[in-house]
Every structure is written in C-alpha cells, then in structure tokens.
C-alpha cells in the first residue's frame, strides 16, 4: 500500500504520473497531506486493493499509454507479476517479519521470502533494470525494460 506517502517523495519528482494505491482511507489521507505539502500534482491516490478493479483502472486510464511498472510494499514478501504486460513488484522485505506465500497468483512470475532486501532500479537511456537485492547484496531477481528512456533532469 501507499502507507504515509514517503515513497511518493522519491517517485513523484522522477515520473510523469504516479498512481498510489492503499486499502486504508486513513493512510491515503496522510499521503494526500504529504502530496499537497510537496506540491506534487502528478500523483493520483486510489483507495483499493493493489489488484482491485479501481487500481487496475487507474493504472490503465491515468497513465498514457499505460504504466511502466507498479510497486507495492504492503505484503512482507518479494513477488514480481506480469499483469497485461506491466510488471508489478511487491517489495515488502525491508525488515519486518516475513510472510509465507499463499496461493500462487496466475500473474506471478517470481516469488521470494527467504531473506530481507530491497529493490534497486537503474535507469539509463538504454532502458530500466529492476532488481531485488537481498541483505547480502545478492541479486535475487532481475527484470529489464529495454525501451529507451527519455532524459529528465532531477529537481
């Protein structure tokens, strides 16, 4: 989920459009306050489950021609999914107790919960590399978007 919006402070200045999803209206209210304080007019907040109809609709409609990637951190696992050609990354292994996996989603392409870690995203003019790196600096999963990236200066 979006939580209190801290990740939005990292993503919003770098991306043209950010869709933030959380099932909690209270968390979205905190995130909305943070977004307003920072003046981010490119962030859409959606109350829903990550794979809910409203969230999927927001990703498809508010991003033109569609999202490049979707990030979530609520579940304390790492999982990469492919939903209609868009990679979804569930990155919840930052330090809290790890969850066990339940039923495998049909969109799932890679799952990991053996150790804590974090996403490392590297963008260049040649594309974007998305990696999940464990606490021992081992790359556990890698996905590459080979589409060329437009250069955008950081604020």
Overview of this structure, please?
The chain is α/β, with parallel strands linked by helices and 155 residues long. The protein is built from 3 helices and 9 strands; from the N terminus they run αβαβαβββββββ. The chain has a 4-stranded mixed sheet, with no helix packed on it. It has a 3-stranded antiparallel sheet with strand order 7-8-9, with no helix packed on it. It has a two-stranded parallel sheet with strand order 1-2. A hairpin with a 2-residue loop joins β7 and β8. The two termini are 26 Å apart. The mean pLDDT is 84.
Proportion of strand residues: 25-35%
Structural class: alpha/beta
For the largest beta-sheet, the strand count, sense and barrel status come to: 4 strands, mixed
Overall mean pLDDT: 84
Unreliable spans are none
Element pattern in H and E: HEHEHEEEEEEE
Q: Kindly state the percentage of residues in helix.
A: 10-25%
Termini separation: 26 Å
Radius of gyration: 15 Å
H/I helix tally: 3
Strand count = 9
Strand order of the largest sheet: 3-5-4-6
What gross morphology would you assign? globular
Which assembly state applies to the chains in this document?
A: single chain
Summary tags:
four-stranded mixed sheet; 155 residues; single chain; alpha/beta; three-stranded antiparallel sheet; globular; 3 helices
Which secondary structure elements does this structure contain, and how are they paired or packed?
Elements: H1 6-11, E1 18-22, H2 25-38, E2 43-47, H3 53-62, E3 70-72, E4 78-83, E5 86-91, E6 108-112, E7 117-124, E8 127-134, E9 139-145
Parallel strand pairs: 1-2, 3-5
Antiparallel strand pairs: 4-5, 4-6, 7-8, 8-9
């Amino acid at each position: 989920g979006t939580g209190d919006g801290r990740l939005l402070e990292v993503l919003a200045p770098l991306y043209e459009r950010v869709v933030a999803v959380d099932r909690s209206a209270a968390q979205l209210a905190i995130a909305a306050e943070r977004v307003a304080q920072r003046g981010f007019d490119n962030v859409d907040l959606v109350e829903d489950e990550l794979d809910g109809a409203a969230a999927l609709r927001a990703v498809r409609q508010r991003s033109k021609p569609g999202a490049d990637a979707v990030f979530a951190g609520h579940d304390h696992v790492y999982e990469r999914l492919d939903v209609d050609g868009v990679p979804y990354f569930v990155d919840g292994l930052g330090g809290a107790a790890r969850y066990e996996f339940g039923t495998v989603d049909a969109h799932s392409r890679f799952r990991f919960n053996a150790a804590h870690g974090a996403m490392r995203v590297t963008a260049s003019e040649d594309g974007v590399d998305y990696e999940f790196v464990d606490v021992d600096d081992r790359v556990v999963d890698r996905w590459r978007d080979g589409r060329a990236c437009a250069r955008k200066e950081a604020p």
